[in-house]
Specification:
Helix content: 40-55%
Number of helices: 10
Radius of gyration: 22 Å
Order of helices and strands: EHEHEHEHHEHEHEHHEH
Largest sheet: 4 strands, parallel
Strand order of the largest sheet: 2-1-3-4
Structural class: alpha/beta
Distance between the termini: 40 Å
Shape: elongated
Oligomer: single chain
């Protein structure tokens, strides 16, 4: 089975909806992922080029194209080239039409008010996706926040949550032998940094699962020693970078996000309400 997945998020508008669904879905799977967004797709020629790229990249296409003619063209063309497509709006369109007896207006872009707040949020999401898991260090200085963390500390979900608040986030993984790149060290004191950790018992359980299939490194006699060193190494890095250290064992992502925004007075451009 494939361990890497490429998803194309295609839209005749900005493409936020398709991209969000793609991100939320792929995070449920343990694999390398890459999401590419195609906005303002309104012509058959554009669709054909995207499908050709999907063939080259062995990608799935998830799309929110309102016009039925173009949507149908995409499905038929993709099917002919054995590319998987998912029309995320069609099931709800059908349900609403069945329930109300009304037909959709098929007008693109109704969900978005094109103001500075919206574009800032879109830029933050794009930046955060491009700077996931240590990617694109050459532009990490443009981040509003840098998140570092041990494996399984929800670095990516937290980063995407912050991005949806309009905050550009870069995240970087902390492993046993991690040496922090100079690009990050140079930003100490200039860009807020957060170090994520979990309690030793939780980390121990995670590592037990991992080392059922692998032998311990020669440097360690027991799994306890390895986990202790892993945590110590993370704390040494966090101290060196003067990170705000947050234990994510019990807190959910929104609570961690609130802690970060309040600590660093980060600008929020979107308000979320939970009922």
């Amino acid at each position: 089975m494939a361990e890497k997945l490429h998803i194309f998020a295609v839209s005749d508008s900005v493409g936020e909806t398709a991209e969000k669904i793609a991100v939320a879905s792929v995070l449920q799977f343990k694999l390398d992922r890459n999401i590419t967004r195609f906005s303002r797709v309104t012509k058959e020629e554009q669709v054909e080029k995207i499908i050709d790229q999907a063939v080259e990249n062995d990608a799935i296409i998830i799309y929110t194209i309102v016009k039925p003619e173009l949507s149908r063209f995409l499905d038929e063309t993709a099917r002919g080239k054995q590319v998987i497509t998912v029309n995320v709006m069609a099931p709800l369109f059908d349900a609403i039409q069945f329930k109300t007896g009304q037909k959709p207006e098929y007008i693109t872009g109704l969900t978005h008010k094109m103001d500075d707040q919206y574009f800032n949020r879109m830029k933050a999401i794009e930046y955060t996706i491009e700077h996931d898991n240590g990617q694109n260090l050459d532009t990490i200085h443009e981040a509003d926040l840098i998140v570092l963390g041990l494996p399984r500390t929800s670095k990516t979900p937290l980063s995407m949550h912050m991005a949806n608040l309009g905050i550009k986030v870069a995240n970087y993984p902390i492993l046993m032998d991690t040496e922090i790149p100079q690009e990050i060290v140079d930003l100490k004191g200039r860009i807020p940094m957060v170090g994520l950790t979990i309690d030793i018992d939780t980390l121990m359980e995670l590592r037990k699962e991992r080392f059922r299939s692998f032998e311990l490194p020669d440097d360690f006699e027991t799994l306890d020693d390895l986990v202790a060193e892993e945590l110590d190494n993370a704390y040494r890095i966090y101290a060196k970078l003067k990170c705000l250290v947050i234990d994510v064992t019990l807190d959910d992502i929104e609570e961690v996000g609130n802690t970060i925004t309040h600590k660093f007075n980060l600008p929020l451009r979107v308000t979320h309400h939970r009922f």
